[in-house]
Write a structure and sequence with these properties.
CATH architecture: 7 Propeller
Helix content: under 10%
CATH topology: Methylamine Dehydrogenase, Chain H
CATH superfamily: YVTN repeat-like/Quinoprotein amine dehydrogenase
Strand order of the largest sheet: 1-28-27-26
Largest sheet: 4 strands, antiparallel
Number of domains: 1
């Protein structure tokens, strides 16, 4: 299970998984965290004690991504066998199994009203599929990208931003699938994206070791962040909109100003290996970071900045 370490001055650590953790996400109310990975399970646990609450065994293969529904009642989780499971967060009961993808489903995201899900496929179908969350009715498929890594619904409008193994991010109408703009600021695969909480900007990061912030309406680059020394695999915007945290193969968690790109904190001691997922608590005071078999909870003292 987890280490009984309450979040305080230093980082707490959850060690309930038996293999590498690829995804971590706070619940909308901040009372629970869900994490999943190579042990084929999703764990729900208490961030104040690192005590496990529930284990979901509904995946036959490695869990790649997960997302809480906006009301916190459900979780959508995806795996390497092409399945997306929608299930109750309190009981683990499966509501629906979506089978539209062929193989790796690297990304899942809920619409802001909690009725639809976007899921992105890697090897096999190279597409984002949009479908109804509770009955799996397929609405449309958005193609044109090779090996989709991220597909995120805008928090305030019916738009989706998706990134891939190519060097671009596409933004499109979530209702119709109609293409709106393409961001071409990167020079390699784009592994991670994050919408600003107000939906006006997008942060993207990837193989070129850079993170960019750009205008979601016209694709204009607003800020370029160059402090990482290796591939960036994860990026997350604080819910208050003020900060970004990014991490990846250099094992260093960094926090920086979302307006200026100024580095505020570089934390190299939390993890010894690649960091694969990041998530802020809803009140922007704690960062969860996943690497190997553990998740660290790192208190963020916003008042210092």
């Amino acid at each position: 299970m987890g280490i009984h370490h309450r979040v305080g001055k230093g980082p707490a650590e959850y060690t309930g998984h038996t293999d590498n953790v690829f995804t971590v996400a706070w619940s909308p109310d901040g009372m629970r965290i869900a994490s999943g990975g190579r042990d084929n399970t999703v764990h729900i646990w208490d961030p104040s004690t690192c005590q496990q609450i529930l284990t979901f065994h509904g995946h036959p293969t490695c869990v790649l991504d997960l997302a809480w529904s906006p009301d916190g009642q459900y979780i959508a989780s995806s795996c390497t066998s092409g399945l997306v499971q929608v299930w109750q967060a309190t009981t683990g009961m499966i509501i629906h199994t979506y089978r539209g993808h062929r193989r790796f489903v690297r990304t899942v995201s809920w619409s802001s009203d909690g009725t639809c899900i976007a899921s992105g496929g890697d090897y096999g179908d190279n597409s984002v599929q949009v479908w109804q969350a509770f009955d799996g009715k397929h609405l449309y498929t958005h193609g044109g990208q090779y090996r989709v890594f991220s597909a995120l619904w805008s928090p305030r409008a019916a738009r989706i931003a998706s990134s891939c193994f190519e060097d671009n991010v596409q933004v499109w109408d979530a209702t119709t699938g109609m293409h709106q703009l393409q961001y071409n600021g990167h020079s390699g695969p784009v592994y991670a994206t994050a919408w600003s909480p107000d939906g006006t900007r997008i942060a993207s990061a990837g193989h070129d070791r850079q993170a960019h912030i750009w205008d979601a309406s016209n694709g204009q680059t607003l800020c370029t962040y160059n402090e990482h020394t290796h591939i960036i695999k994860a990026i997350a915007w604080s819910p208050n909109g003020d900060f970004l945290t990014s991490a990846g193969n250099d094992t260093v968690l960094q926090v920086w100003n979302a307006e200026t790109g100024q580095l505020l904190v570089s934390e190299p001691r939390l993890h010894q290996h690649w960091i694969r997922s990041l998530s802020w608590s809803p009140d922007s005071t704690v960062i969860a970071s996943a690497s190997q078999r553990s998740i660290h909870l790192w208190p963020w003292q916003q008042s210092r900045y």
